[in-house]
């Protein structure tokens, strides 16, 4: 009897196991099992070369430079690849570092990979004192943490627009402006707006090369991306004739993306006279200009000067689209403070545009983060703090400009017979050295100086301490 009971219990378990097994097996096949592994996204900054697709380049640059740099034991090694590292060792708390050349930040070592951000002359991240002050005020005001409206912190978008278009801009009053999730969010919103409301072809033309993320941003909004000629690698300068030809041969009413200043990754900008010509061609061809202004003030040290192209186009009567980032010029990288605006015909049109921007934003992210925009708005709306900030932006731009000069001087001082004038004529965070891939490889191999194969260096990674070694490395390889 007992043995029968035991037997039958065992049998029951066996039956149960037999029933559960297929269920478990079925459960092992997840509903997401068909989701394919995507390539790593490692926040590329800048260039794509002619021969490599972006995804491949992203992987190779991100992986190779950072890893190789980390593994290099040369105490003189320099990383000028400027890849945004998402390494958990990156210090998120940055002790205030008086600028320039503040006290050494113990959290960062020379082996910290270069990031796509400004560094002071000690190679350390820099939080602007005006930002610290604005942040203190925001905190002292004990503001609540409730949602902002769909277009963000109320004081922010119009103040951002004034910075870009100018206080006395003829466009003020007919600008639909909204806060965005930094410059990337602004571009994505603009892309979506174009997809929905641009009556012509669903296509945008971007320069060759351009910031690598541009293509992905526009393609994700289902816009076709075409490239126009921009950089001439033989002259290490602007291919103005090629650009003009491409502007002229594009169908009437095409959308063109322009880097407002400090073109990323080449550092090559059109001159004011060239911008005027570009504007006139766009008028004749009824092209729609979309300006990406990620470096206002950071390029020349003067916010008005860096806004020249945007303001010239407005003076000429264009109705532009504009994305703005406060990542670089206020150092608000991770706060994601940006703005997007469209210039309309009149107040009534702006109202309609505004309503459509809200319709796009609401289901996408509902409303933007408040902290960074409060900081930016505090700076932009307080004349004293604004003046202080302008001086600090100039300090950053000047350091970059000084490093360009120093590098050129050192190369010339070493007796280099090459023309290095492009190092100082280019502007902004990045410089195209004109070194060929095999030369870059040699500089890296023999002198532990790391940068991308296309010869682009991040000038913000150069310091008074390492510029000598950099010049020597380039000179020894290039002559
Ligand atoms: N447009 C251009 C031309 C840029 O270079 C960047 C940033 C942006 C827009 C958008 O920046 P936000 O941070 O979204 O405001 N490029 C940086 C950031 C690094 C990256 O690749 O994301 C850079 O150093 O190239």
TrEMBL record:
As its record notes, the protein acts as a catalyst of: L-aspartate + 2-oxoglutarate = oxaloacetate + L-glutamate
CDD domains, A to Z: AAT_like
Which Pfam families would you find in this protein's record?
Answer: Aminotran_1_2 (PF00155)
Q: Which cofactor does it need?
A: pyridoxal 5'-phosphate
State a GO cellular component annotated for this protein. Answer: mitochondrion
Q: Which PANTHER family match?
A: ASPARTATE AMINOTRANSFERASE, ASPARTATE AMINOTRANSFERASE, MITOCHONDRIAL
- This protein is called what? Aspartate aminotransferase
Q: Which organism is it from?
A: Hapsidospora chrysogenum (strain ATCC 11550 / CBS 779.69 / DSM 880 / IAM 14645 / JCM 23072 / IMI 49137)
């Amino acid at each position: 009897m007992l043995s029968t009971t035991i037997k039958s219990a065992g049998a029951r378990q066996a039956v149960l196991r037999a029933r559960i097994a297929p269920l478990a097996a079925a459960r092992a096949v997840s509903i997401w099992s068909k989701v394919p592994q995507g390539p790593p996204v490692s926040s590329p900054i800048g260039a794509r070369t002619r021969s490599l697709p972006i995804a491949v380049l992203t992987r190779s640059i991100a992986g190779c430079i950072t890893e190789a740099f980390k593994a290099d034991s040369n105490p003189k090694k320099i990383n000028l690849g400027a890849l945004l590292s998402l390494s958990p060792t990156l210090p998120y708390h940055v002790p205030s570092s008086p600028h320039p050349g503040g006290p050494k930040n113990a959290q960062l070592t020379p082996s910290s990979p270069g990031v796509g951000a400004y560094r002071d002359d000690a190679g350390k991240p820099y939080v602007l004192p005006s930002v610290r002050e604005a942040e203190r005020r925001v905190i002292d005001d004990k503001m609540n943490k409730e949602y902002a409206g769909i277009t963000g912190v109320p004081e922010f978008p119009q103040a951002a627009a004034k910075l870009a278009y100018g206080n006395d801009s003829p466009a003020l009053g007919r600008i639909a402006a909204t806060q965005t999730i930094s410059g990337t969010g602004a571009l994505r919103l603009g892309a979506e707006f174009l997809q929905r409301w641009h009556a012509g072809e669903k296509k945008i033309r971007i320069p060759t090369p351009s910031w690598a993320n541009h293509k992905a941003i526009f393609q994700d909004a289902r816009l076709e991306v075409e490239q126009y000629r921009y950089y001439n690698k033989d002259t290490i300068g602007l291919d103005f004739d090629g650009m003009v030809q491409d502007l002229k041969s594009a169908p009437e009413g095409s959308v063109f993306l322009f880097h407002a200043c400090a073109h990323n990754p080449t550092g090559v900008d059109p001159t004011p006279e060239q911008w005027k010509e570009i504007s006139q061609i766009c008028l004749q061809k009824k092209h729609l200009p979309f300006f990406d202004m990620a470096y206002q003030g950071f390029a020349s040290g003067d916010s008005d000067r860096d806004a020249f192209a945007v303001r010239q186009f407005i003076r000429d009567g264009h109705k532009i689209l504009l994305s703005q980032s406060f990542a670089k010029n206020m150092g608000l990288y991770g706060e994601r403070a940006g703005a997007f605006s469209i210039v309309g015909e009149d107040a009534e049109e702006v109202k309609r545009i505004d309503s459509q921007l809200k319709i796009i934003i609401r289901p996408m992210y509902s409303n933007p983060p408040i902290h960074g925009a409060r900081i930016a708005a505090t700076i932009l709306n307080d004349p004293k703090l604004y003046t202080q900030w302008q001086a600090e932006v100039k300090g950053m731009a000047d350091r970059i400009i000084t490093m360009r000069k120093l590098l050129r001087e050192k190369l010339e001082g070493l007796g280099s017979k090459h023309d290095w004038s492009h190092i100082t004529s280019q502007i902004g965070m990045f410089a195209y050295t004109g070194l060929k891939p095999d030369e870059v490889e040699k500089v890296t191999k023999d002198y532990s100086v790391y940068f991308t194969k296309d010869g682009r260096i991040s000038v913000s990674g150069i310091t008074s301490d390492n510029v000598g070694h950099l010049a020597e490395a380039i000179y020894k390889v290039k002559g």
